[in-house]
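Something for you to look into today, if you have time. Could you write out one complete protein record for me, on any chain you like? The space below this message is yours for that.
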Amino acid sequence: MSHYLIELYTPNSAWNALSKNERKQYLGNVATAMGGLLELGVKPLTLTQIDTAVEQRSEHLFVAVWHFPNLATRDALLSGIKASGWYNYFSHVNAAGIETSFAEHLDALCNI
C-alpha cells in the first residue's frame, strides 16, 4: 500500500541567521543523507516553492510531496528529518496518509 507525506515549511529566524556557506553545508549534509533513503524507496514527487497565486493557499513558502512503498520507509524519512535538525530551521507542518480512491475519500468524509 502506498503512503504519502506532504510537508509545508518556511525558513525561520534560525535559518535566516545562517550564512550562505552554512546553509550550503547543512543542505549538502541533508542531500548526502537522502541518498540512503532513496535506496529504500523514498520517492520525492515534488519539492517546490508554493504558488502564491492560488486561492486558499497555505502561508508556508515551500511544499514537498513524497511517496513511500510502506509505512516503515515513511517513518525512516520522518526520523531523518528530525535527526537532521530541520525543525530547528523551518516552521514546518506534516500531513501523511495512505493511497485511497476518490470514492473511498468521499465515504470517509461522509462518515466523520
Notes: The chain has a mean pLDDT of 95.
